[in-house]
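User: Second chain of the day. Same drill as before.
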Amino acid sequence: MEYGHLTFNLPRELLPREAREGDVLNIVISVDNQTMPEYDEDIDTLINEDFKKD
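Assistant: Same format as last time:
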C-alpha cells in the first residue's frame, strides 16, 4: 500500500525532543472504538439539554 505525502506545520511542543530539521516523522491516526460510546452518550446528553432550553 502506498501512502500519500502531506506537509504541515506542528508546534515544537508536539514534536519529540530529539526531532531535528529534516527528520521524517511517522504519524498514525486511528479510531478509538472503545471511547466512542462515551462520546456518543455525552453528545446525546448535551443535545437533549439544549433542546430542553427552548
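The chain has a mean pLDDT of 79.

User: Great, on to the next one.
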